[in-house]
Amino acid sequence: MQIGFSFVQVADPTSSQGLGIVSEFFQLAGSLTFLFLGGHLVILQAFFHSFEMVSLAGIHLNGSIVEEIALYTRMVFVCGLQIAMPIIAVILIGDVALGIIARTVPKMNIFQVGFSLKILGGLAMLIILMPYLGDIIKNLIGISMHQINLLLSKMG
Predict the structure, then answer these.
(1) For residues 12 and 71, what is the distance between their CA atoms, to the nearest angstrom?
(2) What pLDDT was estimated at residue 97?
(3) How many helices (H) and strands (E) does the chain have?
(4) Which helix (H) or strand (E) holds 12?
(5) According to the model, what pLDDT value does residue 10 have?
(6) Which residues pair with 10 in a beta bridge?
(7) Taking the chain, what is the end-to-end CA distance rounded to the nearest angstrom?
């Protein structure tokens, strides 16, 4: 499901593939938010702090640590779904509504109307969600740093 910008592709010179304009926007916005919030400094601090907590040859991986790593991976996936779910829901509802319209009014050119409506609905949800994404990402970075510190303390 896409919001209608699938025809517009941006060439990625590093991977020689076409990227959607919305995914390119989110990649740039996420990178800028990450840098603006000081995420690069937090990662460097965590990297140096990890050597203080766990020595190079002193790592101990047991079943509970691997289980926690799997739990944190699941948490990252769930957080990504929670961030994307409002947009996915709007696109899904729009597709269902366009399907119903296409069945009830067969002479209507649903593709022409559908592209405009999906773009309008998707961009409206993006505009509504953008003010909240910075706070969500800031909270997620704080939570993840706390979880990484707990995990490193258990490893050392």
Answers:
(1) 33
(2) 87
(3) 4, 2
(4) strand 9-12
(5) 58
(6) 19
(7) 45
Q: Are 19 and 133 spatial neighbours (Cβ–Cβ below 8 Å)?
A: no
- What sign does the dihedral 149-135-2-21 (CA atoms) show? negative
Considering only CA atoms, which of 74, 118, 116, 77 is closest in space to residue 96? 118
Of residues 79, 58, 85, 95, the one with CA closest to residue 138: 79
Provide the pLDDT for residue 142.
Answer: 80
pTM (whole model) above 0.85:
no
- The helix, strand and coil proportions of the chain, stated in percent and rounded to the nearest 5, come to 75, 5, 20
Sorted by where each begins, the domain ranges of the chain are 9-155
Give every residue of the chain whose pLDDT is below 70, as ranges.
1-19, 156
User: If you ran DSSP here, which 8-state letter would residue 112 be given?
Assistant: H
Is 3:91 a contact under the CB 8 Å cutoff?
yes
Please give the Cα distance from 92 to 97 (Å, whole number): 9
DSSP letters spanning 132-149: HHHHHHHHHHHHHHHHHH
- The per-residue pLDDT for range 20-32, each reduced to its tens digit, is 777 777 788 888 8
34, two tokens? 């990450």
